[in-house]
Amino acid sequence: MKTWITWIVILVCVAGVGVAAAAWMLRGGGEAAAYRTAAVQRGELLVTIGATGTVEPEEVIDVGAQVAGQILSFGTDAAGKTVDYGSAIEEGTVLARIDDSLYRAAAAEATAQVQSAQAGEARAKADLEQFKANLYQAERDWQRAEKLGPSEALAQTSYDAYKAAYEAAKANVAVGEAAILQARAAVAQTQAGLDRAKRNLGYTVITSPVRGVIIDRRVNIGQTVVASLNAPSLFLIAKDLKHMQVWVAVNEADVGKIHAGQPVTFTVDAFPGETFTGQVGKVRLNASMTQNVVTYTVEVATDNSSLRLLPYLTANVKFELSRREGVLLVPNAALRWTPTAEQVAPQFRQARGGPAARNGGGEAQAAQTPRPERPRDANSPAGAGKRAGGAGSPRTSRGVLWTADGKFVRPVRVTVGASDGTMTEVTGEGLTERLEVVTGVQAATSRAAGGGEVNNPFAPPRFGRGSKRGSGSGSGGGSGSGRGGPPPPP
Predict the structure, then answer these.
(1) Residue ranges per structural domain of the chain
(2) Nearest-10 crossing angle of helices 156-203, 101-148
(3) By CB atoms within 10 Å of each CB, which of 121, 192, 347, 450 scores lowest?
(4) Nearest to 282 by CA among 313, 257, 253, 261
(5) Does residue 488 or residue 5 have the better pLDDT?
């Protein structure tokens, strides 16, 4: 019985020693924490607004058919090849031919009608000349009868007959003149019909109205096109592919920062790693709403002399808001990282009651060193509004960087400027180029395991008001527990 009690006592003692050793290691009594650091750099900072757009030709002509019929053949391009996708064409180049048999017959019929009307006009003129001759004869007879008058030499009936013949001849001349006018109108009417028939016949040959490149061919040989209220589209022609546009959908929160002439850079998936440049042409006022999100279309003009940009590529666009050259830059993770109370050098812990203040010293340290404003991504609407107002001057705020001091860290108070989402401009006393600032911490236990940090619920509290901002990664990611706990041992 005593043997069992002895073994139980031994086991309890061993367990107690193990727990104490583990607590001592977690409290920082073991190996010092290894800090991940990054050097302060001097360079250029570009603040931008990001959006997505589509590469479009500056001017596109949709060539259609104005008559109905079957496509018989295609024309040839400048190289002598059959017109197809990507064909370079000149103004007046034949693109396609439609079956013209019906339109030729209509033109022939209209020609015959014009000739008939012209013949009718000629006959009306001849009739008028005959009427004039009859009028001359009737007028002479009437003049002689009028001199004689009704008498024994001229009977009353004859006198009346000459007078009636004269009046009838004058009326016939008026009828002949009216017939000529009618014949001329008939000629004009039939001539208009002939012109219409010839024009429809000409429409059976589809020609290019401009010089350019065929982007799309929408018909095949043998296909029947039907022209009704809307002309069917046959070919889509880009007038000049050396000058392109990017149509960008910009959120209403960012459109106020866009203006004509603003520099723009963009990339396309077709050419990874290559950046194209352009500038804002204009902002279209006809906004569109999709799922309660209002966007405006912004036209960006770009040079395409190399013809590398193809129509309708998706472009990832960045509008340049401000460009800062020769400024000190730090990773955003350095501004987000907050140390624990034990990681801060002892001379920087004393503030309003020392490290034994409430919440494990977090509030005391927070009162001494202001909590930095979290840098916002300038490519997001909120970040662009906070970090770069308008086209230039960003709003600034106070922040804290931490630099290694042996196994501790010490604060460096800075003024936070513009941010591009990865790097942030900072200024302040004691801040120099190549100064190593802490971006994260790697505990000894995690190094032994070969990598990242361990989220240990028994770890000492973060140095702050219990916020969830913790040790960030070098790329700006990462999070850590910031819960308050019991004050650290003196």
Answers:
(1) 60-99+205-238, 102-203
(2) 160
(3) 450
(4) 261
(5) 5
